[in-house]
Amino acid sequence: MQFVTLMELKKDKKMWELFKYNSYWIKELNRNPASIKNYREEMKAKYKLRTTDKINSAIDNIDMISSVLSVLK
To answer: Which of 47, 50, 57, 69 keeps 20 to 30 A from 15, CA to CA?
Structure first.
């Protein structure tokens, strides 16, 4: 694996954790270092770091707060 790719993985703790548990990425990144973008997208989907995931989480929190407030009335 290229040194630059390995350092990019170690730079982010979540990327490194996912890399340790999904060893098939070793083969993929050895063959094609440009697939780091695909790896990053998979990591964001797994750990729910995408913008849509954050918006959905905020909406769920607002719904929960409003239902608690409606019960308290």
So the answer is: 57
